Inverse folding.
């Protein structure tokens, strides 16, 4: 199974650089074009967090709780940093290969490992509160409402743990396709529901307290003759805004769902392994091809599309002020106008690339580069 997952990752990489059946030559990432700079970023501080994303294509996303930002590296370093001054509050070296994180809430900082460990640290001190072993590797951040810690494993199990002790409350199993992309999105806690996107192209909701199924909705239908053609993972996570759930799958669709019932509000063809963002009533999609597209959040009609970042392996988008921001494989963050998608700003952050979604909190944006550089920006 691990080999198949890595084959899928390799195939995804080939697709991202534009490999086709009638050409043996891989197309390079699109060259960056000049534009009139309208928005400039001001670096406020920069810190190094271990080895960052490591070499196994991890997606370790920092998290903010109040005045503190928490970040973890693949080698197992976890840090708490005052988010406006950049002062390091504490750091903890777990000496375990962290692959899922960071989750924060209820006084806990949560990470998962390649060995299936889920570790809870005290958010104020960094001291370990508990450690629990689950059956499979954890490749996305656990989430918590202070009562339950919810996580999704590589084999698409949803597992709920007691936030106070780490003891298992329930586990919900799903069948996994023969071939999948390596990774999972983080699940969501929405009131009484635990909601997750699966490798099968489905979104499921289960009762948060008991783990019993409430609804299931298929977003993508596997098509094609080969197993590679039929990969429809939902790896970019879910976005819940104003009682609407937005989701996108690889080689499938982008969709808006009613989180209470799973009813489809709208859907349209899309292919994304990174995910979506919402802002000003629009939904922004980072396509696997490198296109960034804006959709009307009510009707799904296309508002604009920017194809200038083709094959640049974009991060999930974020909305920062009146801009859409994406990172790329060369370590740039690109700022696009929410109005028409034109480039309005660009900043080089990390020569090793930017893989995870920029994190926006109010007038601040935090970018975590692949090498471990965590940088705080404001707009000049």
């Amino acid at each position: 199974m691990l080999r198949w997952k890595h084959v899928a990752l390799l195939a995804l990489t080939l697709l991202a650089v534009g490999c086709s059946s009638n050409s043996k030559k891989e197309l390079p990432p699109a060259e960056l074009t000049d534009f009139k700079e309208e928005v400039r970023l001001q670096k406020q501080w920069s810190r190094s967090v271990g080895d960052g994303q490591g070499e196994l294509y991890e997606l370790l996303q920092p998290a903010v709780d109040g005045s503190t930002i928490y970040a973890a590296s693949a080698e197992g370093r976890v840090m708490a940093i005052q988010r406006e001054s950049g002062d390091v509050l504490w750091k903890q070296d777990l000496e375990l290969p962290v692959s899922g994180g960071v989750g924060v809430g209820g006084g806990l900082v949560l990470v998962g490992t390649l060995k299936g460990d889920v570790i809870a640290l005290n958010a104020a001190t960094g001291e370990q509160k508990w450690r629990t072993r689950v059956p499979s590797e954890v490749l996305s951040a656990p989430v918590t409402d202070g009562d339950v810690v919810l996580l999704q494993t590589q084999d698409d199990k949803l597992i709920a743990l007691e936030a106070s002790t780490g003891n298992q409350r329930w586990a919900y199993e799903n069948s996994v396709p023969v071939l999948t992309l390596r990774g999972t999105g983080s699940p969501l806690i929405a009131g009484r529901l635990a909601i997750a996107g699966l490798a099968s192209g489905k979104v499921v909701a289960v009762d948060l307290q008991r783990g019993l199924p409430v609804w299931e909705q298929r977003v993508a239908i596997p098509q094609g003759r080969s197993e590679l053609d039929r990969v429809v993972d939902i790896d970019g996570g879910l976005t819940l805004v104003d009682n609407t759930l937005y989701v996108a799958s690889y080689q499938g669709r982008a969709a808006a769902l009613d989180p209470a019932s799973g009813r489809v509000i709208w859907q349209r063809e899309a292919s994304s392994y990174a995910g979506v963002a919402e802002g000003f009533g629009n939904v922004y999609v980072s396509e696997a091809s490198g296109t960034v597209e804006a959709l009307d959040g009510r009707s799904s009609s296309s508002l604009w599309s920017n194809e200038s970042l083709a094959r640049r392996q974009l991060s999930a988008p974020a909305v920062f002020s009146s801009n859409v921001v994406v990172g790329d494989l060369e370590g740039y963050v690109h700022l696009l106008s929410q109005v028409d998608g034109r480039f309005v700003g660009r900043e080089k952050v990390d020569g090793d690339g930017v893989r995870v979604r920029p994190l926006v909190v109010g007038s601040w944006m935090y970018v975590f580069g692949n090498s471990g550089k965590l940088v705080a920006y404001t707009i000049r």
